[in-house]
Amino acid sequence: MSAVILQVGQCGNQLGLEWCELLCKTSKQVAHRSPFITKEDTLAVVCVDSESKVLKRAHRLVKNKKLLESNVVQGKGGRGNNWAYGYHGPRGAEGDKLLHGAMEAVRREAEKRDYYGGTVMVHGVSGGTGSGLGSRLCEEIRAEYPVSHLLSVSVVPHQSGESPLQHYNTLLSLDALHSGLSLGMEPWELIRSVCPMPSAKLLSITQASSREKQKWDRLAGLTLQSVPQLSPAGKSYTSRAVLAVARGDQDKSFATSRALYKLKRGHRCVAWNPFPIDHWTDPCNEMTGSSSGAAQLLTVCSNHSSVTSLLDHTLRRSKEKMDVRAYLHWYERYGVETQDFQQAMDTLLNVMEEYDAQ
Positive or negative, the Cα torsion across 205, 209, 215, 218? Predict the structure, then answer.
């Protein structure tokens, strides 16, 4: 019971509340050992948005006594798909109200714990609230709880078509979030397994499942189908480390299968890491509540260099807009200057260099 989930913005709450409802359906035995369920059998979740419409589902959880009402923090207006507006908020008391309300809710949850390990933040990076307010909350949490851990679950946008500001917002969010990840326990064990280098800590997830008994190496092959192999320049992508989570492994066959070998080869694990692949298993597939072994789910988390494709695209599109000063006045209005964009670009370039180094 050491983790607090912080869901920020429309995307973060849509994704997070789906997970909350799934977690509420799990067995009491599973819930009892979950780091996301409190001793009072409520969700250790804080839902924050600048508008109320997305939080209606959160209020249903409050009504069902699965979520504390004080953990639902909402504002009276959106953030205009603008990172700067989300980060600084409107002028006056309303600007600080949402930030302070969110931090108070996190503080209350943290103080209930015998041990507060840290926060898992779920948000999108292309809009205003999830990106801007999410970045601000990361900074506030790091300042308030400097020895705790912070794991960001970030939803990135499509390459084009969502918002003319999405590349700026993504750029500024990734800059703010890059220093927000640290190593630790429980959910943080994921990071311990797949981040051998603190400077390279952007992770990707693939999954494959089966309703019938399958060989684990077949599911491993299915997860590899969506893993990019070559960069646009024809360079092979690599993985710093890989973690495989096999749910429904009732006969303990995963460790003796060829799945780990197939994943190691398919992800092209770097030669310098002596232990590039790790695995966790569970006889029960908790995602469906099955303990019969009939349902299998393989989740693969990889520290894969294909993330540089996202970073490169974000940098290029942001620079194209900056060169003609497109939309910059919308950010300058809330205190974000050209040098802030340049600093964010430098950060992303450094990350790309880390991943490009073999």
Answer: negative
Domains 3-193 and 195-305 share a fold: no
Distances (CA, A) of 104 to 71, 78, 100, 129, 217: 9, 21, 6, 18, 46
* Whether the predicted pLDDT of 43 surpasses 70: yes
Radius of gyration of the chain (CA): 21
pLDDT for the residue 33? 64
Predicted pLDDT at 181:
47
- What is the DSSP pairing of strand 239-247 with strand 296-304? antiparallel
- What does the pLDDT look like over 313-351, one tens digit per residue? 999 999 999 999 999 999 999 999 999 999 999 999 999
- Alpha-carbon span 172 to 314, nearest angstrom: 10
The token pair that represents 167 in the structure block: 């590349």
Place of tokens 């710093």: 240
Write out pLDDT tens, residues 151-179: 899 988 766 656 778 888 888 888 777 65
User: Which one-letter amino acid corresponds to residue 299?
Assistant: T
| Number of neighbours of residue 231 by Cβ within 10 angstroms | 15
pTM over 0.85: yes
CATH number for region 3-193: 3.40.50.1440
Distance of CA 107 to the CA centre of its chain: 21
The conformation of residue 81, written as its DSSP 8-state character, comes to T
Q: How many CA atoms lie within 13 A of 67 on its CB side?
A: 28
Arch. (CATH architecture) of 195-305: 2-Layer Sandwich (3.30)
For the chain, domain boundaries? 3-193, 195-305
Q: In what order do the strands lie in the sheet with 239-247?
A: 204-210, 296-304, 239-247, 277-282
